[in-house]
Amino acid sequence: MTTLTSPHDLLAAVPFLVGYHPTNSLVVIALHEETIGMAMRIDYPEDVDLDQIDSLASHLVREEADSALLVAYVPAGVIDSEYLLTPIREAIAMRGITLRECLEVRGDRWRSTICEDEGCCPPEGNKMPSHEESRIAAEQVAEGNPLPYENLNELRESIAPSPRNAALERALDRVSGIDYEGDEVVALEREAALAVNDLALEFSEKGICESIEIVALVLVRLHDLQVRDYAMGITEPENIDSLWAMWRWMMKIAPQGYVAPVATLFAITSYERGEGALAQRGLDRALEDDPQYALAKLLRRSFAAGWPPSSFAQMRAQLHPKICEKLFREE
Questions:
Q1: Rounded to an integer, what distance in angstroms lies between the CA atom of residue 289 and that of residue 284?
Q2: How far apart are CA 262 and CA 253, in angstroms?
Q3: Residue 132: predicted pLDDT
């Protein structure tokens, strides 16, 4: 995203950064030498939570931000937002980070809380700009990025389960799981890893995988941690968009009991692409399918702590070669 040069640019950019038009939210955006980093959104808190404020400020530190932007989408019942915005601004300043702008949005009006010129920032606020006519929106569309969802419910609906697929369910019944007491464990894991490769290749070429047998094999064997971590490890900057679309498609068609692993993979790729809201919704799908799914619970904590997206690439660089060595050492 290009440089934000005005409050109008910032207001237009936030929905693209979080994936939808937020309400009742706090959004903190990291800047590093004018480059826009990852946005962190939380629900607008009813009370001051110092731990939560510390998490927001720490997110900026992990992003190596030298400055930041803050936008508060204030709920209708809140009369004065300063009880919350003041400690947030102080927490950011204590970390040596410059707060470049702090906007308060109430309904269809906005104002800057750090601008003292009532000529440009009157107490009653300014009318919200049209997102569709903004420079930021035009540039995002020109780059092929989709328009943000209108609200969180619409975003959730975008990854809702597809109608039941009886043929897929029959194919799943034909796939054997992995007997960890047998001597074929690595061979079965290797077979699944190769199926992941075939799935990714066909999806990149066609935008779908027509082989229901490959889809079923991958869904069944992703319950194996080695296979899931292998699937996580094939992500590269060159293929992340294709894999994100693939995991989204797989998550939507997966029957109950098969959703958690693929939804977690979708969440990771979403987070790496800067789509934090979609990443959280992916974790919702995973934990609805399996409330005890360990990786989804770990990622929930990691996302909330503001882990930089680059940390996943670093983790893969260390983990993936070890998994490949184990799975393919006989070849």
A1: 9
A2: 10
A3: 66
Residue with tokens 């997110």: 59
Cβ atoms within 10 A of the Cβ of 211, count? 14
d(CA 100, CA 92): 11
pLDDT score recorded for residue 14: 86
- Domains of the chain and CATH, by start: 7-150 (3.40.140), 166-328 (1.25.40)
* Per-residue model confidence (pLDDT) at position 278: 86
User: CA triplet 38, 39, 41: central angle to 5 degrees?
Assistant: 145
Element (H, E) at 277: helix 276-289
Amino acid at 315: M
Q: Note every long-range contact of 74-77, with CB atoms under 8 Å and residues 24 or more positions apart, other chains counting.
A: 74/24, 74/44, 74/104, 74/105, 74/106, 75/23, 75/24, 75/44, 76/106, 76/107
Strands (E), the chain: 25-32, 35-43, 67-73, 98-106, 109-112, 126-127
Where the chain has pLDDT below 70, the residues are 1-3, 131-133, 141, 144-146, 306, 330-331
Residue type, 193: A
pLDDT at 3: 66
Residue in 301, 209, 288 with CA at minimum distance from that of residue 256: 288
- pTM, 2 dp: 0.73
101 Cβ neighbours under 8 A, 6+ residues apart = 7, 10, 69, 70, 112, 114
Residue with tokens 């190596």: 64
Q: Which of 1, 85, 22 is nearest to 276 (CA)?
A: 22
